[in-house]
Every structure is written in C-alpha cells, then in structure tokens.
Amino acid sequence: KNEVEQSPQNLTAQEGEFITINCSYSVGISALHWLQQHPGGGIVSLFMLSSGKKKHGRLIATINIQEKHSSLHITASHPRDSAVYICAVRGSQGNLIFGKGTKLSVKP
Amino acid sequence: EAQVTQNPRYLITVTGKKLTVTCSQNMNHEYMSWYRQDPGLGLRQIYYSMNVEVTDKGDVPEGYKVSRKEKRNFPLILESPSPNQTSLYFCASSRWGDSPLHFGNGTRLTVT
Fold first, then answer.
1. Which of B43, B99, B105 sits opposite A98 (nearest CB)?
2. Residue A70: is its pLDDT beyond 80?
3. A45 with B103: CB under 8 angstroms?
4. Are residues A48 and B99, on separate chains, in Cβ contact within 8 Å?
5. Tens digit of each residue's pLDDT (9 = 90 or more) over B38-58
6. CA distance, residue B13 to nearest chain A CA (Å)
7. How far is A35 from chain B (nearest CA, A)?
8. How many angstroms separate the CA atoms of B17 and A2, rounded?
9. CB under 8 Å, gap of 24 or more: what pairs does B4-8 form?
C-alpha cells in the first residue's frame, strides 16, 4: 500500500465546475504540499499546509491531521487549470513522499 | 529573479560514463533536494540537504551521489550511469524543510 494515495487518478470537468482532489496518507507528517505540473513538465508549488485551510485565488486546500487527509478544491474551473496535481508529505525522517498525481482536464 | 537553475535540460549518454547535473539557487535557501520522475511511479526523492555539508538519502539513492559544499549549489552525480537511471530529474529548494518548494525546470536524462 502506498503511503500517499490520491484520488481520482484522472478527472475530466467542464469549464466552471467545482473540482475536488483528495489525498490520504498513512505516515506521521510535519507538512503537506500540493504541487501543479503543467503539460510542459514544470512543477509549481501551490500550497504547503500543516493544519487548517489555505486559499489562493480560486484554489483552496484543507488538511485534517487526525484523519490524515487533505483536499484541493478548484472553484470555477478553467481550461488553463488542466494539469497534473500532486500531493506530497514530509515524513518523520525529513524525506518527501509523493502521491502519483491526479491528471485534470477542463473542457471549454 | 528568484529561481532554481538546472543544467543541462536534456542529456543523452552511454552506460558507465560519469555525469553531473548541476543545480543552483539564488534565494539563500537552506534546503535543497533531488527527485526523479518516472511514468507510473511518480516523483521520488533521491537525496536532500538541510544545510551546507549535510546530506541525507531519500527513497531511491542507489547509484547517485550529491555534495553540498556551498549553500547555493547541489549537484547530482552519476558515477556510472545505467539505463535504469533514464528519467526526468528535478531539483528543488526551500527556505527550510517545511517551506514551499521551488523547482528547477527539469533535466531529461537518457542512458543508452
């Protein structure tokens, strides 16, 4: 069993829809990262969370430490949001463990 | 401009020929790290460094070496590359271990 599980693996949405991507982990963590990888391959950090909720524009990230679960929400989705979204957790030994990513496609 | 610079972007080499992928950051970050990305396996951490002269193994360190002689640079060394090291490699840095990560543009390595 992977230590970091993301769902869904693939997601297709219509422009304007509300999108949720989930991340569950089985290890103790000090922080959780949400990353975005565009088709060109570059990776951008969206959020780093250790508790609660963060918001940046149309993106919202939440984390529940007790349930070992985080969600990334995109409101009013747009075709430019099409990318792979990756969850990563920092384990107790300082290493980073990644989920396999969620490929999002937003159709106009 | 704040950035993480990796070189080269593309590299094709042959088995056993030593190579170095460079990584440099201009943000005075303490933490630097290397990852490889493979289809179906996602991103995996190779090595990381919390500060100068301090390095630690990630999940897949076999076949790789790193050094952190100065804060800005964190080169990845493949002493004797093999075809199973064909992959897309990323370097990243952050202010400290639990800060947002800044990624380089990636290096696509092919070992024949």
1. B43
2. yes
3. yes
4. yes
5. 998 999 999 999 999 999 999
6. 21
7. 9
8. 34
9. B4/B91, B4/B92, B4/B93, B4/B102, B4/B103, B4/B104, B5/B104, B6/B89, B6/B90, B6/B91, B6/B104, B6/B105, B6/B106, B6/B107, B7/B107, B8/B107
Burial class (CB in 10 A: 0-12, 13-18, 19+), A18: exposed
How far is B104 from chain A, CA to nearest CA, in Å?
A: 8
Q: How far is CA B52 from CA A24, A67, B49, B109, in A?
A: 33, 36, 7, 26
Q: Cα–Cα distance between B104 and B98 in angstroms, integer?
A: 18
| pLDDT of res. B75 | 98
Residue B23 pLDDT:
98
Asked if A84 and A103 touch (Cβ cutoff 8 Å), the reply is: yes
Please name the residues in contact with A40: beta carbons below 8 A apart, sequence gap of 6 or more: none
User: Which residues on A lie below 8 Å from B49 (Cβ)?
Assistant: none
Percentage of chain B lying above the pLDDT 90 cut = 92
Instruction: Residue B48: list chain A partners with CB under 8 A.
Output: 94-96
The candidate with the shortest Cα–Cα distance to A78, out of A14, A8, A4, A26, is: A14
- What are the tens digits of pLDDT across the range B90-109? 999 999 877 889 999 999 99
Sign, CA torsion B57/B61/B63/B68: negative
